[in-house]
Amino acid sequence: MGCEDGQGLGDRIARFRVRRKLTQERLAERAELSVDVVRKLEQGQRQTARLSTINALARALDVEPSVLIGQPTTFEARQEGDSPSVLALRQAVSPLTELLGEDADPEAPPTIGALRAALRSTERVRREGRMAEIGVLLPQLIRDARTAAHAHSGAEAAAAHAVLAEAYQVAATTLAALGKEDAGFTALERSMEAARRSDDPHLETMGVSTLSSDGGDCSPAEQEACDPKYDE
């Protein structure tokens, strides 16, 4: 996934940290993260981070998460092939790691609270039409939710599958809107599978209408904000 400034995640974290006159220790404290995470990101020992980690750093640095991740190549039309943003979504929905296996993850699985917060943030970005940011936020959310679903058990695993189902629904809607119905259908199938393993009986029903909607309906993540019954 290309970024216009040519910098990596760690470079941008360091740049904003210095601009805010923060030490690595102070940034870690404000973000409620280990200083080792901040240090390894800035030194380039780690090239990626959980969306919850990026959100925490963004709050501590008073910037949008997409600013830290970097402006991605947008979902613009191309003559040949898919844009990097579309490819990132395709790869998140159907990752090669399913065939090759995944490397050990240096971060602990995200908490359910962090996943739900990341889902709400990503869904808000989508509804505001900030499609360039979806290209980097949504794939990471899907990976985080999948990691949590595999790592947790019992009620926490079911809750993680609920977030994963909704993330796949957003991916299905986004891909279908971009004319990538094949990838959108795959995302929908994965959403239904995750919904069956979740703790929310309504998700499977909602998934059926995902591709036929115009993208304006509320997802479960936003239901409290847009359902009139919550205004009573």
TrEMBL record:
Q: Which organism is it from?
A: Streptomyces yatensis
* SMART domains the record matches: HTH_XRE
- Coiled coil: which residue ranges? none
Task: Cite the residue spans of the region called Disordered.
Answer: 191-232
Question: What domain of life is recorded for the organism?
Answer: Bacteria
Domain (HTH cro/C1-type): give its ranges.
13-68
A Pfam match is HTH_31
Biased composition (Basic and acidic residues) is annotated at 191-203
In terms of CDD domains, this protein maps to: HTH_XRE
Full protein name: HTH cro/C1-type domain-containing protein
